[in-house]
């Protein structure tokens, strides 16, 4: 795979998700907008502004550099085929300001579920 095909989505203004390699939030994806794409094919950093993360002690959105190996394009919702979640489905659920992988452990009704997360261990009712 060439550098062009691996970074085609890293254009200014594009919507992306950033993964973290920190142990406490490993596997969590945070939504962001690309402010400055990598300037060269050798530059492995992209400058982004996060949607749901703020600067410490501030309401200003966090801006930071992210290694392109931790960046993926934001998925486009399929509005023509709404999800049909079932018990024990593995899902990405929006929780604690990011997208966490969990398992549906309770189906309350067609639009309400309890998702159990392994890291950190927790449960949340999601709609």
What does this structure look like?
By secondary structure, this protein is mainly beta. 3% of the residues lie in helices and 49% in strands. The protein has one helix at residues 3-6, and strands spanning 15-19, 29-36, 45-54, 61-67, 71-73, 90-95, 98-109, 112-117, 122-126. The protein has a 5-stranded antiparallel β-sheet with strand order 4-3-2-1-5, with no helix packed on it.
Brief characterization of the structure:
The chain has one helix at 3-6, and strands at 15-19, 29-36, 45-54, 61-67, 71-73, 90-95, 98-109, 112-117, 122-126. It has 127 residues and is mainly beta.
Give a topology summary.
Blueprint: H1 3-6, E1 15-19, E2 29-36, E3 45-54, E4 61-67, E5 71-73, E6 90-95, E7 98-109, E8 112-117, E9 122-126
Antiparallel strand pairs: 1-2, 1-5, 2-3, 3-4, 6-7, 7-8, 8-9
Provide the helix percentage: under 10%
The low-confidence runs, each spanning 5 or more residues with pLDDT under 50, are: 1-5
C-alpha geometry = globular
- Topology order in helix (H) and strand (E) letters: HEEEEEEEEE
Count the DSSP helices.
1
- Strand composition percent: over 45%
The whole-angstrom Rg is 16 Å
pLDDT averaged over residues = 86
What's the β-strand tally?
9
Question: What structural category arises from helix and sheet content?
Answer: mainly beta
């Amino acid at each position: 795979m060439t550098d062009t095909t691996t970074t085609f989505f890293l254009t200014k203004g594009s919507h992306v998700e950033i993964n973290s390699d920190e142990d406490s939030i490993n596997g969590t994806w945070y939504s962001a907008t690309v402010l400055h794409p990598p300037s060269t094919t050798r530059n492995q950093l992209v400058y982004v502004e996060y949607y749901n993360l703020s600067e410490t002690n501030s309401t200003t959105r966090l801006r930071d550099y992210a290694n392109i190996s931790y960046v993926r394009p934001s998925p486009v919702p399929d509005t023509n085929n709404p999800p049909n979640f079932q018990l024990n489905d593995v899902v990405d659920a929006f929780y604690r300001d990011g997208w966490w992988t969990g398992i549906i452990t309770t189906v309350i009704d067609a639009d309400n579920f309890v998702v159990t997360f392994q890291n950190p261990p927790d449960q949340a009712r999601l709609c």
